C-alpha cells in the first residue's frame, strides 16, 4: 500500500519548488545529453544516435518520447519517400537549453567547492566504519 505521506511531501515539493518537477524529468542518463545535442540544431534519429554513442536505439526512442511529452522536443516528419524524421528543440526546449547553460556555468564555478565537501564527507563516513 502506498505511503500517503510520501505523496503529500512530493506534492508539496511540486507546489513549492517547481524545479523539483524539472529535475525529475531530466534526472536520467540520456535526457541532458539529448538536449545538449539538439541545442546544436535539428538532427535526424541516426545523427543523434551516433553523437550519443553508446545509447541504444530503444533508449534514445524512449528518451525522445519522454522529452516530447514534456514539451521540450518536437518531431518533424518530412513528406518524402521514404519519410524522413528529424528532432529539434521546441521553444520551451530552447529556453531550457539556455537555463542549463547558466546552470552549467554555475557548476563549473563552484564544482571544486562542493567536490571538496563531498570528499570530506566521504572520509568522515569511512572513518565511522
Q: What is the average per-residue confidence, as pLDDT, rounded to a whole number?
A: 90
Give the oligomeric state of the chains in this entry, treating copies of one chain as homo and distinct chains as hetero. single chain
| CATH class category name | Mainly Alpha
Query: What is the spatial order of strands in the main beta sheet?
Result: 1-3-2
The stretches of 5 or more residues where confidence is low (pLDDT under 50) are none
| Helical proportion, percent range | 55-70%
Main structural class:
mainly alpha
Strand content: 5-15%
How would you characterize this protein structure?
Helix content is 68%, strand content 11%. It is mainly alpha-helical and 129 residues long. The protein has a single domain (4-128), classed as Winged helix-like DNA-binding domain superfamily/Winged helix DNA-binding domain (Arc Repressor Mutant, subunit A, Orthogonal Bundle), CATH 1.10.10. Residues 17-115 form the HTH hxlR-type domain. GO terms for molecular function: DNA binding.
